[in-house]
Write a structure and sequence with these properties.
Elements (H helix, E strand, L loop, with lengths): L16 H9 L18 H15 L2 H8 L13 H4 L10 E4 L4 E4 H6 L19 H9 L2 H19 L5 H30 L17 H11 L3 H12 L8 H26 L2 E4 L5 H14 L7 E6 L3 H4 L5 H8 L4 E4 L1 H15 L1 H20 L1 H9 L19 H23 L6 H13 L2 H24 L6 H19 L10 H14 L10 H16 L3 H24 L1 H10 L12 H10 L12 H15 L7 H10 L7 H12 L5 H13 L9 H12 L9 H12 L7
Parallel strand pairs: 3-4, 4-5
Antiparallel strand pairs: 1-2
């Protein structure tokens, strides 16, 4: 850095008006010292020099070029032009330093190496007599102490550049030790990341290296030491010295916290950049979960007013219109639209259907569950069941008490293996030495051989198969409300066609096909009457044969089994999905922007829904949105975009956001709304893996951090080990900086 001297600097800011005027007229009376210029206190001789300088300024450009030998653009108030015009008046002094904060001038060399106080050293409180700075600078520069300090500085600078200082060896050792710890920390972070992603336990009964039960983390370190010299050296030091080895439980928790924090920061950054967001929350008490949501949003600095959707299950404490979570949030933010979980709706529809059909609920599914319990409780009975399989094995599924759509697996197993299951019951019932299992097997053989049970298996299997397909499609992360209602509409249409007696495209009535399947399954039964009840069972068989010979059996099948199930399912479908229909009424036109039937009223409805009831702020303007849609239709007439997401991609790809701001906002809000909370519920599966019965002492914070790492494991690929190490080092630093 250059400091130019030999010109008296300006006095301090207390300069009066006359001095300020003289500063404006002075041609060469300023000097840049650390970016500060000061006006000179001009004496008579300097005034004469200034007058001559003014005369020189008035000379023509040719005259100045002749005198200086070259043409120079001179500005008396621009310090960059001074050295070219006045080379004899400026000297580059790199040792002169000015402090803006203290308003003092220092000599770099003397301040560092001259222990005796002088006017330019730190011990002498440095120079501030601006009146005599020209003279004193020249005097100080010629002193012996200044020369000695200068020589010392030159020597030190050379040693620093060539790394030959007195502590160079210690610096090399320090750098080597720092590199060793960095490499070690990379291995620790990678190991903790691996264990957390796989939901594996860290600790054992012991925390000592090379102990038998010291846990997965220490065992992993021991395994790495066999192949990695860095880890081998560290474990050798850890076992031979009492110094810190960074393998303790506390360090593990701190590194886990750093990893989880890094993942959370990536998520929060993405949400903040997107502005609009939705939440998905699972079961808890209404008031408690609302407070937890608000506290968590404040913790991560997310604005509640930017929330545009909330997805919950359909429990009254979550979806209640008075004290439910969704209503409490709507009172604080009217634009946080509530979207009930479509998967929960579908499961509840099946549940309600089974409740309406009392005979089905009490007899059919209870019999299915008893069948599973009978064989699963006894290895002997299970072995007899497997003997009936021609090849492979027979698998029976448990009947779920919560997810009714998953009962499709249970009915499928019975439908495929019902004759073999009946044969196994008969074999157990006809055992040479009858016991309690024989009596129960005889009763179960009677129940599953009834034609009513066989018809129930066929009907429920076909209905639940269609429902299960829709349920799995609804769990997609890319599904939106319009696609959801389309799937529900297809399911409703299918059930109506079956109810009205239409076929599935092959010309045959669907119900007739179901009835034929039931009769075919019944014909595969090899009924051998039990010795305990020979007469009663034979009478049932004779009566069934007489009933089958009548021509009215299909009508009874329709009335007794098919119509009650279909009518209840259709009624509950319409009842359960009314709320989604209302949301589709608001946003549905965004799904088909190709349509020219979009009206201004549709845009007004959306504007009203996205207008705050408290502040009155609007997300979109209806009139502008309508005009933007009409303009945007000209761009997509011949394009292949067919979904709101594709429309939004096109806007961002071609930089059209400033042209279509309202349309962009409407599409973003629409795509933000959650259809199901299946992805949120899947996190509970990770929690079950993370905290099992062997890890019951785990605290809430550690559980949340491990779950975050495990659930969002894909985001860990974007986090470098150096980032985690720096975060860990910052948290462990003991230095405190005061301002």
């Amino acid at each position: 850095m250059s400091r130019y001297v030999n010109v008296t600097p300006r006095p301090r800011s207390s300069t009066n008006e006359n001095e300020t005027e003289s500063m404006e007229t002075e041609s060469a009376g300023t000097v840049p010292i650390e970016g500060i210029e000061r006006e000179s206190s001009v004496d008579k001789s300097e005034s004469s020099d200034a007058e001559s300088a003014n005369e020189n300024d008035e000379k023509s450009e040719d005259e100045r070029e002749t005198e200086s030998g070259k043409s120079v653009d001179f500005n008396a108030y621009d310090p960059h032009t001074w050295p070219d015009v006045l080379p004899n008046y400026f000297i580059d002094q790199e040792w002169l330093i000015y402090s803006e904060s203290s308003d003092l001038v220092y000599c770099l060399y003397c301040a560092l190496f001259n222990r005796k106080a002088n006017s330019f050293s730190a011990l002498g409180r440095c120079y501030s007599t601006w009146m005599n700075i020209n003279r004193d600078v020249l005097i100080h520069e010629s002193t012996l102490k200044h020369h000695e300090s200068f020589k010392t500085w030159i020597e030190l600078r050379k040693r620093l550049q060539t790394n030959q200082t007195i502590d160079s060896h210690q610096q090399k050792l320090l750098i080597k030790e720092i590199d060793r710890w960095k490499e070690l920390m990379k291995r620790l972070v990678a190991s903790i990341q691996f264990l957390a992603q796989q939901s594996l336990a860290f600790r054992g009964h012991s925390s000592t290296l090379y102990d038998k039960n010291n846990g997965n983390f220490l065992k992993l370190m021991e395994m790495l030491a066999k192949f990695d010299p860095v880890m081998a050296d560290h474990l050798n030091r850890a076992t031979t010295t009492n110094k810190r080895n960074y393998l303790s439980n506390r360090i593990q928790n701190e590194l886990i916290e750093c990893l989880a924090t890094s993942v959370t920061e990536i998520i929060i950054k993405a949400v903040t950049e997107s502005k609009y967001y939705s939440i998905m929350v699972d079961y808890s008490t209404g008031k408690g979960v609302t407070n937890s949501i608000i506290a968590e949003l404040n913790k991560v600095n997310l604005k509640l007013q930017d929330m545009r959707g909330q997805g919950h299950d359909n429990g009254p404490n979550m979806a209640g219109s008075i004290k439910g979570v969704q209503n409490r949030i709507l009172e604080m933010n009217s634009r946080a639209l509530f979207v009930p979980c479509a998967c929960h709706k579908l499961n509840l529809m099946v549940n309600d259907t089974a409740k309406v059909v009392d005979s089905t609920r009490h007899k059919f599914f209870n019999t299915v569950q008893k069948c599973f319990v009978f064989f699963s409780e006894s290895p002997k009975c299970w072995a007899i069941l497997q003997e009936m399989a021609d090849n492979g094995k027979i698998t029976l599924k448990n009947v779920s008490t919560t997810r009714w759509a998953s009962r499709e697996n249970a009915t499928k197993c019975r439908l495929m293996n019902l004759p073999k299951i009946h044969a196994a019951f008969c074999k157990i019932a006809n055992a040479p030495n009858p016991d309690d299992n024989s009596y129960d097997a005889n009763n179960m053989a009677r129940k599953i051989s009834k034609f009513s049970f066989i018809c129930s298996v066929v009907v429920w299997h076909n209905v639940l198969t269609k429902i299960n397909i829709v349920s799995k499609s609804l769990q997609s992360q890319s599904i939106d409300i319009t696609q959801c209602l389309k799937l529900i509409g297809n399911l409703t249409s299918y059930l109506k066609k079956v109810r009205e007696g239409e076929g599935e495209g092959d010309g045959h009535n669907t119900i007739d096909k179901w009835f034929d399947s039931a009769k075919q399954i019944q014909s595969q039964f090899h009924l051998e009457p039990n010795a305990l009840d020979n007469m009663a069972l034979q009478e049932r068989l004779d009566r069934r044969e007489r009933d089958d010979s009548d021509g009215d059996d299909i009508r009874k099948f329709r009335i007794s089994f098919v119509y009650p199930i279909l009518d209840a399912a259709l009624s509950k479908l319409q009842e359960r999905f009314d709320h989604l229909t209302e949301l589709e009424h608001l946003f549905g036109f965004l799904f088909d922007l190709h349509s020219y039937s979009i009206s201004l009223d549709q845009c007004h409805r959306l504007e009203t829904a996205l207008t705050s009831k408290t502040g009155g702020s609007k997300d979109v303007n209806a009139t502008e949105l309508f005009d933007e849609i009409k303009s945007f239709q000209a761009l997509i007439d011949n394009a292949g975009e067919k979904s709101p997401l594709e429309f939004l991609y096109k806007i961002y790809e071609f930089g059209l956001v400033p042209i279509y701001p309202n349309l962009t906002t409407a599409l973003r809000v629409f795509l933000t709304l959650p259809v199901t909370i299946a992805s949120a519920e899947s996190s509970f599966s990770k929690l079950k893996l993370t905290k099992n019965y062997l890890r019951t002492t785990m605290g809430q914070d550690r559980l949340s951090q491990l779950a975050t790492i495990s659930i969002e494991s894909e985001l860990l690929g974007d986090i470098s080990h150096e980032t985690v190490i720096n975060k860990f080092a910052t948290a462990k630093a003991r230095q405190v900086f005061f301002q």
